[in-house]
Amino acid sequence: MSQSQANGHVYENQGTTNAQDAVEADSTSHVEYDAVVVGAGFAGMYQLYRLRELGLSTRVFETGEGVGGTWYWNRYPGARVDSPSMQYSLSFSSEMEQEWKWSEDYSPQADLEGYANHVADRFNLREHIQFGTSVTSAVYDEKSGRWIIRTDRGDWVSAKYFITAAGCLSATNVPNFKGIDTFEGQWYHTSRWPAEGVDLTGKRVGIIGTGSTGIQAIPKLAEQADHLYVFQRTANYSLPSNNKPMDPEFERDWKESYPVHRQRARESVVGVEVPAYPDRSALSVSDEERNEVFESAWGNYIALLSTFNDIAINPESNELVAEFVRDKIRQKVKDPAVAELLAPTDHPIGTKRICIDTHYYETYNRDNVTLVDVKTNPIETITPKGLRTTADEFEVDVLVFATGFDAMTGPLYRMGIVGKGGLPLQKKWEAGPRTYLGVSTAGFPNMFMITGPGSPSVLSNMTTSIEQHVDWITDAIKYLQENELESVEAKVDAEDAWVDHVNEVANATLYVKANSWYMGANIPGKPRVFMPYIGGVGNYRQKCDEVAANNYEGFALSQ
Ligand code: NAP
Fold first, then answer.
1. Can you tell me which atom of ligand 1 is nearest the CA of 74?
2. Does the domain spanning 172-236+353-404 belong to CATH 3.30.420.10?
3. What pLDDT sits at residue 16?
4. Concatenated DSSP letters for 43-106?
5. What separation in Å is there between the alpha carbon of 308 and the centre of ligand 1?
6. How far lies 133's CA from each of 154, 156, 248, in Å?
């Protein structure tokens, strides 16, 4: 055992014996922890910090060689957060909040990775994190009431609490393109971009995917490449970030009243403080007034979908914003045929994640950029020299897959989680994720999911939602300890009611109309279910707090 495992207890030759295959007696030694956390992004690091405060021995397993999660992996050119830097940060330490300086309104990847490293160093978290290690199975052993966690290093540990902090968008998706193995050039998924970068000078580059990632990467790739081919299947709505260097006066003002801003974000709908608009329909005002309102929000894109109260629910109101954005695209792109291809028409605006860009549409005015419509003429095969669609062949040196993620459930399934009765999580959720509050699932005692399906998570500012979940989970564990309870587990009826509620609020919106990753629609065979909770961050927090205040109503607590 290494010194860094010292916070857990080492047990020699004591593998548990009664549980499922993966738990069977093991001749190797293992360490017993109070808690195992998977992932060392903001969620995992803050959870570790809070559990350490409670005095729990905790091990964090992290696949990467460094902290930062999303901001460790997503190093593609142009990667940048789309929540304001002053709000996309952790609030638990007011000292750190005051000390830290963000250089831009919307932080680039390098700043966020730097910040994550600062968090790890400032709070001495690294000694509890095992890097370069992926969890391959986590199995609940009913006899001992402990989780048995195995890793790709061939070792195993046990823990009373098993907490997933592996992010919602960490399981990469490379579609199963025919011929991919024959490609003679280099290819990269954007979320596995090499830390040392890729020199694209003089190269012919092809990028597949025009979601948030592609839209951020394309302007940067176009600057470097000899020629860039953008293979677009579905056009997305993108709004300008209007990013700029941080204004010191704005920063000072914000820091002076940080607690007030944070509280507003916590009580908001999406976990970010946004300007308040009058509570009225987009159909209730004149065209002129409506356009003025949209124009004002164009400078603060987070507000655009909140300018009127029915954009997410009334197709007519939604179409008015959508057409406003399409007009902006037409104004920016010189070639009308290219502009029309870039103007989305197949889904209501906002029902797929809105993209935020810096000079995305303008990039199509460059001579070295070609937009290829792979909806009309789908990609047939990757070839040794490039890619063939049903209409044309393209020779490229580098292929970039900005093809997204197996969102929300993907990272959990890759951990091989098995609950009571040997039931794999994937099996329990085969018709779609079933959780109570998005933090727990029946049959998986003492397991908590940070920003799991059924919580606001990806529909919110992640740092706001991460902190809320970590605080709630920590309080729940503290409650167990103080009341000498051994386990907490969601009750099936509470879970059923929560799933019904999650579906009911989603079905009242236009979100369910889009083939989005929120619906699992980007992964062949994945059940079509709206996964996050759309009822709002503030409402959700209130519900979680009520459950806790009522002695964890809806959970079975056992001694
Ligand atoms: P994504 O939104 O799922 O986009 C994937 C893209 O790949 C889509 O354009 C998709 O087309 C295309 N694609 C997938 N399979 C294809 C195929 N077989 N042939 C042709 N095209 C194919 O993934 P993403 O862009 O990585 O974004 C995922 C999420 O990450 C975002 O929604 C956002 O939540 C987060 N993100 C945030 C930021 C930020 O904060 N600034 C930046 C990047 C990502 P279809 O639409 O036709 O399927």
1. 43
2. no
3. 35
4. HHHHHHHHHHHTT--EEEE-SSSSS-THHHH--STT-B-SS-TTTSS--S-HHHHHH---SBSS
5. 27
6. 10, 11, 40
Q: Which of 104, 114, 47 is nearest to 81 (CA)?
A: 104
Q: What is the pLDDT of residue 9?
A: 57
How many angstroms separate the Cα of 237 from the Cα of each of 19, 185, 301, 357, 458?
A: 49, 31, 11, 10, 17
Asked if 371 and 230 touch (Cβ cutoff 8 Å), the reply is yes
Greatest alpha-carbon pair distance for the chain in Å reads 76
- Judged by DSSP in three states, 136 sits in strand
* Closest C-alpha residue for ligand 1 atom 2: 211
Rounded distance between C-alpha atoms, residue 532 and residue 517, angstroms = 10
- d(CA 321, ligand 1 centre) in Å: 22
Instruction: Give the mean model confidence (pLDDT) for residues 183-197.
Output: 97
Structure tokens at 191: 């979320």
As a whole number of angstroms, the distance between CA 294 and CA 277 comes to 11
CA atoms within 13 A on the CB side of 542: 8
3-171+407-552, what's its fold?
FAD/NAD(P)-binding domain (3.50.50)
Residue with the two structure tokens 């607590």: 557
Q: Which of 403, 463, 511 to mutate to test the pocket of ligand 1 (most atoms within 8 A of CB)?
A: 403
Tokens of 198: 């890729």
Beta bridge partners of 449: 164
Do 355 and 212 touch, CB atoms closer than 8 A? yes
Write the DSSP assignment of 500-558 as a string of letters: HHHHHHHHTSSGGGS--GGGTTTSTT------S--S-HHHHHHHHHHHHHTTSTTEEEE
Q: Look at residue 275 in the predicted model and tell me its pLDDT.
A: 80
Structure tokens at 145: 């009431």
Q: Where are the alpha helices (DSSP H) in 367-461?
A: 409-413, 425-428
Please state, in angstroms and rounded to a whole number, the distance separating the CA atoms of residues 532 and 238. Answer: 21
Cβ-contact 231, 208 below 8 angstroms: yes
pLDDT tens digits along 487-546: 999 999 999 999 999 999 999 999 999 999 999 999 999 999 999 999 999 999 999 999
Question: Taking the mean position of all CA atoms in its chain, how far away is CA 551?
Answer: 30
pLDDT in tens, 318-370: 999 999 999 999 999 999 999 999 999 999 999 999 999 999 999 999 999 99
The reply to whether 3-171+407-552 and 172-236+353-404 are identical in fold is yes
Closest residue (by CA) to atom 32 of ligand 1? 353
Cα-Cα-Cα-Cα torsion 283, 276, 540, 418, nearest 10 degrees, comes to 80
Domain boundaries, the chain: 3-171+407-552, 172-236+353-404
Compute how many other C-beta atoms are within 10 angstroms of the C-beta atom of residue 31. 21
**Measured between alpha carbons, how far is 345 from 323 in angstroms, rounded to an integer?**
9
Residue 418 DSSP label: E
Token pair in block for residue 456? 């606001």
Quote the pTM value: 0.94
Partners of 516 in the β-ladder = none
Residue in this structure with the two tokens 């901001």, named with its chain if needed:
71
CA–centroid distance, 375 to ligand 1, in Å, is 15
Structural contact between residues 85 and 106, judged by C-beta atoms closer than 8 angstroms: yes
